[in-house]
Amino acid sequence: MPRNRLRSGALPAAGLALAFVVAACGADDSSGPAVSLPPAAVDGRQLAIDSGCAGCHGKNGEGGVGPAWTGLAGSTVALADGTSVVADDDYLRRSITDPLAQIPAGYTVRMPTNTSLTPEQVDAIVAYIKALA
């Protein structure tokens, strides 16, 4: 095999497998619909990807195992206990920091508690979710 073959874009099998696993876990790549974000939400999007949130909520907030973030901010959310709540800033922050406090109806997979995010990081993710409204 020529030495420049790898430089021309060919990936060894192990690298290709790793790329597939990373993409499947919500890592950022150029595929999928483009999301135009205000500057305040760009860091939140990257945090959501890096922290694993995008693995369940979708790389662009489209949802999956977890509820969609697109259109969430300001909407009324039906909860598993039969009540509902408006998805304001307080609800969004609480959902990130204490996800078992108000579980959205219809979701059986429980979100893990985020103990490693700083308040500033939580605010950045909230800004991202609000930008998807």
Structure, described:
The protein has a domain at 39-131: Cytochrome Bc1 Complex, Chain D, domain 2 (Orthogonal Bundle). Helix content is 38%, strand content 5%. The chain contains five helices and two strands, in the order αααββαα. It has a two-stranded antiparallel sheet. Strand 1 (76-78) and strand 2 (84-86) form a beta hairpin. Helix 2 (39-50) crosses helix 5. It is globular and about 35 Å long. The N and C termini lie far apart (51 Å). The relative contact order is 0.17.
Our Rg estimate from Cα atoms comes to: 18 Å
Alpha carbon gap, first and last residue: 51 Å
Rounded average pLDDT: 79
Number of strands: 2
The percent range for helix content is 25-40%
The oligomeric status of these chains comes to single chain
| Highest CATH level, the class of the domain at 39-131 | Mainly Alpha
The proportion of residues in beta strands is under 5%
Shape: globular
Order of SSEs? HHHEEHH
Q: What characterizes the major β-sheet? A: 2 strands, antiparallel
Return residue spans where pLDDT drops below 50 for at least 5 consecutive residues: 1-33
Identify the CATH architecture of the domain at 39-131. Answer: Orthogonal Bundle
Physical arrangement of strands within the biggest beta sheet: 1-2
Layout of helices and strands:
Layout: H1 13-24, H2 39-50, H3 54-57, E1 76-78, E2 84-86, H4 89-97, H5 119-131
Antiparallel strand pairs: 1-2
Helix pairs in contact: 2-5, 4-5
Question: Can you tag this structure with a few keywords?
Answer:
single chain, 133 residues, mainly alpha, two-stranded antiparallel ribbon, 5 helices
